[in-house]
Amino acid sequence: MMVKRNSLIFLTAFGLLLTGCSKSGFEITKDDILEVARDDANATKSECENVSIKEQKGSYIVSFNTNGGSYEYKIGKDGIIKERSFKRGAKEETTETEKVEEPVKEETTKKEEKSSSTSFDENQQQAINSVLANSGLEQSDVSNITCSLDSNTNQYTVTFILNDVTTTAVVDAATFTVISTILG
User: Fold this and answer.
1) Whole-angstrom Cα distance, residue 16 to residue 10?
2) Cα four-point dihedral sign 135, 139, 144, 150
3) Which residues pair with 97 in a beta bridge?
4) Band of pLDDT at residue 7, cut at 50, 70 and 90
5) Residue 147 and residue 129 in contact, taking contact as beta carbons nearer than 8 Å
6) Read out DSSP for 72-122?
C-alpha cells in the first residue's frame, strides 16, 4: 500500500507541475518594453526624458528623448523590436527609420569602406551595419572599427569608438542579429 500511495502522490505532484508549466504566454509589462528600447538605444533611465508608451494593435509605441536625439520604437508584445526611428537633435533631415525585419543596405557605407584603409568582406560589413543600425549610428559617426569572426561560436565581434567610448558588440554570423552590446 505504501508504494501505491507514494506513486499516487508523485503522479499528482508531477501533474500539478506540468499544469503550472503549460502556460506558454507570458506577460510583458510596459516597464519591460521601455527597458528593451532603452537598452537598444544604449540609454540609461536618467538619460531619458519625455518618455511615452502607447499600446497599439498588438504592439507598443515607445518614444523618448536623450541628449543625442529622440527615439521611437515599435515593439511587439513579445518584446521584439519591429521598427526603430532616431532623430539627431531637432533636425528632421537626419531622421533614420528602419524596419527591423528587413536587412538594411546602405550604398554610402560601401563607398566609405573603399576609401578607408581597413576593408571588410561582405559578411563583416553586414555585421558592422547591423551593429551601427542597432545603435542608431552610421559608419561615418564612429572611428577605429574592427570586426572579427569567432568560428567556434559563429559570432562576429565588432568594436568601434564613439565620443572616446569604446563599444563592443557581438553579432550572430548566421542571422546578423546583434546579441549584445557593451559600452566601456
Assistant:
1) 10
2) positive
3) 85
4) low
5) no
6) EEEEETTS-EEEEEEEETT-GGG-EEEETTSPP--HHHHHHHHHSS----H
Residue type, 38: R
Cα–Cα distance measured from residue 3 to residue 130, given in angstroms and rounded to the nearest whole number: 59
- Say how many C-beta atoms besides its own lie within 10 A of residue 179's C-beta: 12
Looking at residue 113, its amino acid is E
Angle at 66 between CA 63 and CA 69, to 5 degrees: 80
Please return the burial class of 119, using the count of CB atoms within 10 Å of its CB with bins 0-12, 13-18 and 19+.
exposed
What percent of the chain clears pLDDT 90, i.e. is strictly above it? Answer: 29
Q: Is the pTM of this model over 0.70?
A: no
Q: Following DSSP, what letter does each residue of 128-169 receive, concatenated?
A: HHHHHHHHT--GGG-EEEEEEEETTTTEEEEEEEETTEEEEE
Q: Which long-range contacts (CB under 8 A, 24 or more apart) does 76-79 make?
A: 77/28, 78/28, 79/28, 79/32, 79/33, 79/36
Query: For the segment 61-99, what is each residue's pLDDT rounded down to a tens digit?
Result: 999 998 888 888 888 888 888 888 888 774 443 444 555
Alpha carbons 157 and 150: distance in angstroms, whole number: 8
Entry field: residues in the chain? 184
